Structure formats: structure tokens, C-alpha cells
């Protein structure tokens, strides 16, 4: 469905969204966490094309029909709505009046599957008054309507929007099939043969997560997904052990244990 570029660099988010589309389980609202605003925009426009392509609806878009071309140029009157701050605003904020007009427009029926995209949804750009106006529409969206909020971090998004949306982390390193933990850039191998080796690996993981601003929760999820095919059939003993330790790590993370301890315990638990 999505382009080869997004599949290659963001395989996990792509797989997540494609499964939701196939199962007709798209959420009312998504928050795309990424420092690359261009790629967030690409995700939003490609999703709009997938849902509105006149030749291949809910499949790989043709990029040739009128809907695809309009969405590509950000000129579609209904299928893709990009909301940005008012250029005349000294504070660089989205205007309350614009949000009111948007809500009124969304209440009207249309044949299109509408995707509303906010490139920057932090509280400075999208103030509380704007968010509060949208709450009911976001929570009880009309049919064929999706909100997408882009942002660099989840920490400066209004909690009321955050609680009503699904978070998707767009990170090329964590989402791809390779994470540079080893000098030869092979796939991650969390198993070690000694305590010293496991602690060295834990330190390397911590440094990589910190340097690339990757959240530990996302790292654990990625390991679980990427090691599924590798181990489930080829080495069931290692498979069972890895998933047992990953489950423990997730539990410790939910109990607010320090990430450093969670990573060290995970690596120590996988000494062969």
C-alpha cells in the first residue's frame, strides 16, 4: 500500500497501519512522533491516497487518478486537509476561528475519506482552546474521518488530545530491520555468553537509544517483532526465552523502573 521508501525506512509503522486498513480498524486519531516533518507529511498524504484512490481504493494508490494528483499537490478540497499556523500570527499559532471553520466543514457529508493533518501539534502551535474545540470531533469522529497530529515529542501535546489518539513513532533506525549496535551493522543479538559481554551489550544499547532519542518501549516492541520470524521456527528454545525476558522488561518498564536497570536485566537474563 505505502511507498517503497516508507516500507524500507519505517517498516513497523507501515505494517501497523496496513493491518489496520485491511481489518477496517483505523483509529479516529493518530499522533506521529518524528523529528522529520517531511516524512510525517508523506505518511499522511500516502494514507489519504490509499483511502481515496479512484482506481485502487484501500490498496496501493495509482498516483494517476484525480484524487491522487490533488492530494499530492495538497489541492484536494475534501480528502486531505492540512492545518498550519496563521502566517499573520505573531505567536505562530493555529487560529481558533480556523478550527471552528474546520469543524463546521467536517460536519458536512462527503464521498471522500477525509484525512485532517496538523504538521505541528505542540501546545505552542496548537493551543488548548483549539484542541478543546476539536475534542468531541476527535473522540466521536464522523464516518470516514481521520485526524493526524505530527509532533517531535509526545511531552508537549495537550493530554486531552494525547489520550484520544494512537501514538506512532517514526524513527528510521528503530523501524528498519537494522539497528547499529554492532560495528558490522548486523541484526541485533541480545544473547551473550558471559556477564561482561551482556553488560557491554547493555551499555551499547543504552548509548544507541540515547544518541538517537529512541524510547525503550519502542525498542522492546521492535525486538519482539523483528525476532519473531528469526527464532520462532529455527530455535524455539531461544524464542521462548527471549519473549519471556521481553515480557519481564515490559513489566518493569510499566513499574517505572529505570531504563538502565531494565536493559541490564534484559541482557543478563539472556546469557547462554
Task: Give me some keywords for this one.
alpha/beta, Rossmann fold, 2 domains, five-stranded parallel sheet, 5 strands, globular
Description:
With 272 residues, this protein is an alpha/beta fold. It has 2 domains: 4-170, 3-Layer(aba) Sandwich (Rossmann fold), CATH 3.40.50; 175-268. It has 12 helices and 5 strands. The protein has a 5-stranded parallel beta sheet with strand order 2-3-4-1-5, with helices on one face. α9 runs antiparallel to α12 (259-268), α10 (216-231) runs antiparallel to α11 and α11 runs antiparallel to α12. Residues 173-187 have low confidence and may be disordered.
Overall geometry comes to globular
H/E topology pattern: HHEHHEHEHEHEHHHHH
* Overall tally of structural domains: 2
Determine the mean pLDDT: 84
Question: Strand percentage, roughly?
Answer: 5-15%
Largest β sheet strand count, sense and barrel closure: 5 strands, parallel
Considering the protein shown, what is the CATH homologous superfamily of the largest domain? P-loop containing nucleotide triphosphate hydrolases
CATH class of the largest domain: Alpha Beta
Q: Quote the distance from N terminus to C terminus.
A: 41 Å
The structural class is alpha/beta
Unreliable stretches (pLDDT < 50, length at least 5) are 173-187
Number of strands: 5
CATH architectural type of the largest domain? 3-Layer(aba) Sandwich
Q: Strand order across the biggest sheet?
A: 2-3-4-1-5
* Helix content, binned percent: 40-55%
The fold-level CATH name of the largest domain is Rossmann fold
Helix count equals: 12
